[in-house]
Sequence to fold (95 residues):
Amino acid sequence: MSTPPTRYSLTFTVPHPSLTACKSAIFAAGAGTYPGGKYTKVCFQTPGVGEFTPGEGAMPSIGTVGKAEVVEEMRVSVLCVGREVMMRAVEALKR
Fold:
């Protein structure tokens, strides 16, 4: 009998304008699919407010280096079945 794949929970925050693109990327990588494939593109989203200050050497897509920024974001949690799926989803978010 084979061992079932390990389940990982991937959680990230994303500004609202990038939400759809990020979810499409992780779903294309296989995240959000439950074993057996009866449910796909499954995630949980929670709105919130993120705060950050880009440091020296950062190349922020939002904000300015050295200046605090406050952004409305979504926190997204998604199931990844197997390490390979989790790694592909993380790589998809980096693009």
